[in-house]
Amino acid sequence: MLRIEKLSKTFSGKIAVDNATLDIGKPCMIGVIGRSGAGKSTLLRMINRLETASSGRILFEGREVTQLKSRAKRAWQAQCAMIFQQFNLVPRMDVVSNVLHGTLNRRPVLAALFNLYPAADIHRAIDILERLGIAEHAAKRAEALSGGQQQRVAIARALMQDPAIILADEPIASLDPMNAQTVMQSLRRIHEEDGRTVIANLHTLDTARRYCDRVVGMRDGRIVFDGLPGQLTAGVAREIYGADEAFSEAATSTAIETLEPGGPVPGLNPAIPLARRRAAVTA
Prior knowledge:
four-stranded antiparallel sheet
């Protein structure tokens, strides 16, 4: 479905991503891990075409994304939605209007300028907010919500685009543990129920192991690991994060078991079941 071939990006002579290659043959949830500066964000921004690759190419269903321009490029960015660490909402605008911004790419300029939307889009936005457990906040200003709620608004805005792929750049880095769990459960549910591919840059090893089907490890711009969560041993973690980092097999295993991904999560709509992951995770 998505293929990344020998993708590289250089900024002022410094290599940010170095010859990255990935094959994603079917919808899955992928966690990209690595230290700060490993190239994780740059990789996602190149996939979304917010950054232009220095070399290499990206193909989606046989079409080369790296060569798209103008309207075709914008259409791809709608198909490949981006969620950011800092939410990127309009703080003084109400929640449902922020969600409706996910349709701007297909709205006439004047209609978007005057915040005019079809009734069907408004109902769909509210349905998505209901799905994410925050429909009661639809009329509030985005700035009145907690960080976790704002990130779910950003997820709802991405879903309004009806994307095939959702890219999440450190979506829980600024959230407390409970809100981080809620957001990760939301992304997991979207993958499982909608069949969408989710690629998330994550800062912690245990989060990637807990929620993702596949984990990609980056170090110094290069992909140094691509495998199943169960293959993330302490030795592999040291390769990703550096030999100077202390990793314990027992501590990592304990972290995996701390939060059960199939369990109830405050704030999510219980009417929408979340299938439990059945894959065994071994150290």
